[in-house]
Automatic annotation (TrEMBL):
GO terms for biological process: L-tryptophan catabolic process to kynurenine. It comes from the Bacteria. One of its GO terms (molecular function) is arylformamidase activity. Pfam families: Cyclase. InterPro entries: KFase/CYL, KFase_sf. This is Cyclase family protein.
Amino acid sequence: MDWIDLTRPMDETLTVYAEPGYSDPPFRVEPWCDIAGQGYAVQRLALGTQCGTHIDAPAHMAEGGVTLEALPVSALVGRYVTLRPGQVPERGDATLLFVDGTVGPIARAGFDAALALGFPVWVMAGGLQVAGEEPLFLHRALARAGIYLVEDLDETAAAHLPDRGEIIALPLCLVGTSGAPCRVLARGDVLR
């Protein structure tokens, strides 16, 4: 199977997280210099650490949580197994947990069982909710457990992944941050 790009494009149509009284920094690309004036072109980027497809370090939701650089890059490349509401997968040889959050909430017992599998990185398509819990419960619980979360994937592309395969999720190499935008590629073992 060919690699599938699960990264959301970053352009003027990109929406950022917002709620009443708060918004993440807007995404902007502005000209800095051009070939006619400087001999080369450079653009200035303005964005937040949780912009577009990104990874959350535990520091994003847990006071005193570790920041992005604490995660070895080797933890972001490997085999995945898929978690779907109502099903807790067997870990097998997987090093990453792919979460299909597009099909509805997960029961608290299912979430706790998935947490017990011990994956250091969860890669999530959609906005999985834990039934009966507040909207950010999953994010906070993962952060408290020291788990990194890759999220805001292109859900249309993610829908084509089978239950097992490989994922590469490479964030910017930022130090001391709660997260970073990243490029996420995946390929499944077989087509659905």
